[in-house]
Amino acid sequence: MVNDKSPLRAASELAQAGRTAEAIDCLEAALALTRSDKERPADTSLLARTAGLHCEVAGRLSQAARYYEEAIATADPEPLLLIAWASVLWRSGQADSARSSLASAESLARSLSDADALTMVANIRAEWASDDR
After folding, report:
1. Which end of the chain lies in a sparser environment, N or C, as judged by fewer CB atoms within 10 Å?
2. Number of C-beta neighbours around residue 37 at 10 A
3. Candidate from 16-20, 30-34, 114-118, 119-123 with smallest mean pLDDT
4. Which of 83, 88, 123 is nearest to 104 (CA)?
5. Residue 56: CB partners within 8 Å, gap ≥ 6?
6. What is the dihedral angle through the alpha carbons of 40, 46, 52, 56, rounded to the nearest 10 degrees?
7. Separation in Å, CA 6 to CA 75, 98, 127
8. What's the rounded Cα separation, in Å, for the pair 88 and 115?
């Protein structure tokens, strides 16, 4: 079912069929083809972000964090991506890194006047404040 021309579509179909591990493998195969390129294709960040999301759903948090980090490194970061990365880091026990990522998300959201992302940051901070880490 892997479609080299549309790994995102193939991964989506696999995930919808309950085959999350295969969806992640599909995205990883597509990403692997781009890693040696100096200028990676425009959709590389989206591939990595989607792989991160599927890993999160599957409970593979360390792998999700690596994919989110790759997504951030291959494109201009977006507040929601930084928030997702922070959340995974927090749940993985990396509280200091999570706080740093969340601070970056907040700073970026402020510079973009992204009220929704700022609300998410505030909600996450409140949730984390009740967690003794």
Report:
1. C
2. 9
3. 30-34
4. 83
5. 64, 84, 88
6. 180
7. 20, 32, 38
8. 22
Ramachandran quadrant class, 53 (left: phi over 0; alpha: psi -120 to 50; beta: rest) = alpha
In which band, very low, low, confident or very high, does the pLDDT at 131 lie, cut at 50, 70 and 90? confident
pLDDT, position 41: 79
What average pLDDT is seen over the chain? 92
Element (H, E) at 74: none
Q: How confident is the model at residue 42 (pLDDT cuts 50, 70, 90)?
A: confident
The first and second tokens of residue 116, run together, are: 């929704």
The string of pLDDT tens digits covering residues 17-34 is: 999 999 999 999 999 988
Which stretches of the chain are DSSP H helices? 7-16, 20-34, 44-57, 61-73, 79-91, 95-112, 115-129
Cα(35)–Cα(78) distance, rounded to whole angstroms?
A: 21
